[in-house]
Amino acid sequence: MADLKFYTNPMSRGQIVRWMLEEVGQPYETIVVDYAHMHDPEYALVNPMMKVPALVHDGRIVTECAAIIAYLADVFPAAGLAPSDSEKADYYRWLFFAAGPIEQAVTNHANGWDPSEERRRMFGYGSYDDAMAALAAHLAANDFVCGDRFTAADVYVGSQVLWGTQFGTMPSLDPFVAYAGRLERRPAYLRGKDIDNQLITEMKAKEDAQ
């Protein structure tokens, strides 16, 4: 039995790791960390950045969504979510592209921090439009990150696309919309959403009762 402790808040990027855990299919314990207590010294021992999600597996701590997802794919190979040798180039390329250029471009753009043409070389993604176009071109030619097979990279890249197109931080380009539609039908994705939505309902009910 896997000793997995999942520290999360259902209204956070913890939803990404929840989806991955459901894909992996191993038993895990959920520990909800309220935002009011995220800076408590006890939680700082788990993640000194004092944010969620975090994973503790057999006493080892992993933080950062992309790292947690890659870790789970590696340590639970039976789930079939790690890349084959022929898939590794696309797997690592786009996983890190989503965790780096896409994450930075989306965050900066949403805050109105788009670099001028003169300063684009200082930004790893060049421009928001360039980053969106690069990912869209890959997804236009492939059903999933590594071609025709779903892998752990799709949990992270897909979460970026699902969240971004839903909330308008990424454009609703045809490749993004089609890719999101394929992912939304996955049973593990639906299970994870149901769990987190139920936790959100419980948290809101508790807040209303106070």
Q: Give the CATH level 1 class of the largest domain.
A: Mainly Alpha
Give me the oligomer status. Answer: single chain
Structural class: alpha+beta
Please state roughly what percent of the residues sit in beta strands, choosing from under 5%, 5-15%, 15-25%, 25-35%, 35-45% or over 45%: 5-15%
Give the CA-based shape: globular
Helix-strand pattern, N to C? EHEHEEHHHHHH
Helix content: 40-55%
Q: Tell how many strands the DSSP assignment holds.
A: 4
CATH architecture of the largest domain: Up-down Bundle
For the largest beta sheet, what order do the strands appear in spatially? 2-1-3-4
What profile does the largest beta sheet have?
Answer: 4 strands, mixed
Low confidence ranges:
none
How many alpha or pi helices? 8
Provide the gyration radius in Å. Answer: 18 Å
Count of domains: 2
In the CATH hierarchy, the third-tier topology of the largest domain is known as Glutathione S-transferase Yfyf (Class Pi), Chain A, domain 2
Global mean pLDDT? 96
Report the end-to-end length measured between terminal Cα atoms.
38 Å
